[in-house]
Amino acid sequence: MKSSLLLTVVLCLFGTSALAGPLFDRLPANKQAQIRALIADTFPESTFSAEQQAEELAWFVTVAKPLQGMDIAVLSEQLPTHAWESTVLAPAFSQLTGIHVTHDLKPEGEVIQQINLQRIMTAKGRYDAFVNDSDNIGTHSRSGWALALSDFMAGDGKAFTLPTLDLNDFIGLDFVTGADGKLYQLPDQQFANLYWFRYDWFQRPDLRARFKARYGYELGVPLNWSAYEDIAEFFTVYVKEIDGQRVYGHMDYGKADPSLGWRFTDAWLSLAGAGDKGLPNGLPVDEWGIRMEGCNPVGSSVKRGGATNGPAAVYALEKYLDWLKRFAPPEAVSMNFSEAGPVPAQGQIAQQVFWYTAFTSDMTKPNLPVTNPDGTPKWRMAPSPRGAYWQDGMKSGYQDVGAWTLPRALPLERQRAAWLYAQFAVSHTVSLQKTLVGLTPIRQSDLDSPQMDEEAPRLGGLVEFYRSPERALWTPTGLNVPDYPRLSKLWWTNIADAVTGKLSPQQALDNLAEQQDRTLKVIERNFQTQNCPPRVVPDGQVKGRDYWLAQPGAPKPKLANEKPPGRTIRYEALLKQWQAR
């Protein structure tokens, strides 16, 4: 699929004979053969024509000539998308350009540790580029460690910036832009947290009739937490078995493990409605409960105007604990993220309140209990239901954006070489093929392609969601969080205290809020921030909990009724709403 805009860009850059391939035609015969083979065998699916792909790849070959013979190393987390990059893209790029790339894969926590190590060491570390979550944008844009890509593309990296990079085609640029308006990261893969449910069970007339008789409304996609809770109770307590198998109405995990923190920082409080209205993150209070004044974080405890330990956050933690212990399989409480992830594919889970769409490829494998004989899914994905404190205008969930980040302290030639590989990994030649492999789209043109039309029926709503304007309500951690590695590690230990019963939800969140405030003070005092540092409200100027709960917005006072009537929508009606917008 070729957009007129892209064709215009190519023609303007290369002249009216662009599709004849002026750069490609100048290459040696062996390089032309390499490019033809890559297009035919490795990148057969693209929104570019074969001629445009050849010209784009020829640009990489041509521009890389002064960098031939270099060795660079990059690091990303262990996802199917990055595994494909490591095994397919890195060798292809090395073959084309003569720049040898080692593309390592490690667990997400180790990626962050390596970034921190290189941030502490002012000299070059082991890696020349990282694919890391845009959750780090508040850190990267403040610390001075990350290269400002906007400046680089206009300056030292201008001649090495792909003419067909087409930034306006990326769907996640807002998430990698600092408070100064500069781009610090380039999206490489993207996926959302969405509601997941057994569409086949929700369609059964007998189950629909039983649910309506008990709860007074239709079994369907839950719009609020009340309906989600009713559905969870229905399958776990009243249905119990389907086709001779024990079934459960909810799935989650509760093991004391760093991944328990992701369960909450990946926007659980925003689904409850703890923060403020505003996109991409609540303003002035975000989904972590951190209040901003201007671009400066000032505190997360309610007494400082934050919402980390406010009534809505306590409600969110209480619901998490209640559902985990009443409606999930008994073993879920002792599982971590990696252990719990495969469970819905085993066929006994009716729904999951939020589920990472990065698992879509694993959930569409043949011969699973949750796929039909023809390979289509028995399940669907939809927007996650919202809690009692949620209001229109708030974010509706979390979106993970893994994005290329270059250290600022690298020698210029290494920056240029790493930048070329990063662009190769997201180029029009490559991006659609990568999307079909990993199902983590980053370009609108790929989402609009005929290839995605063809794939949509087997992806359970992924394509429909990403084509919908609703997509804009799903956002990553934002600029309110000035040091993601330091602050994120506080969450799992405090949530674990609530899971084990060591502390009440209110006590656990009080501890978390106080620890975040103290850490913000440390960042303010010691961390060499250049832009928008924390300015934590001094103890002598704290206005107190009662004052802030009486003000409009977050932190919000406790509702008299935290379980309003359940509301659902039929999945077919939901799809029509998306298409109408």
Describe this protein's structure.
This protein has 581 residues and is α+β, with helices and mostly antiparallel strands. The protein is 43% helix and 11% strand. It is built from 25 helices and 13 strands. The protein has helices at 4-14, 22-26, 29-42, 50-63, 80-97, 108-120, 137-143, 149-154, 199-203, 205-215, 225-239, 258-265, 268-272, 311-327, 337-340, 360-363, 412-426, 428-438, 444-447, 450-455, 462-467, 484-499, 505-526, 545-549, 571-580, and strands spanning 71-77, 100-106, 129-133, 186-197, 221-222, 241-242, 245-246, 291-293, 296-299, 351-356, 380-382, 399-405, 568-569. Strands 1, 2, 3, 4, 10, 11 and 12 form a seven-stranded mixed beta sheet that branches. Strands 5-13 form a two-stranded antiparallel ribbon. Helix 3 (29-42) packs across helix 4 (50-63), helix 5 runs antiparallel to helix 18 (428-438) and helix 22 (484-499) packs antiparallel against helix 23. The longest helix is centred in the C-terminal third of the chain and has 22 residues, at 505-526. The chain is globular, with a radius of gyration of 24 Å. Residues 1-20 have low confidence and may be disordered.
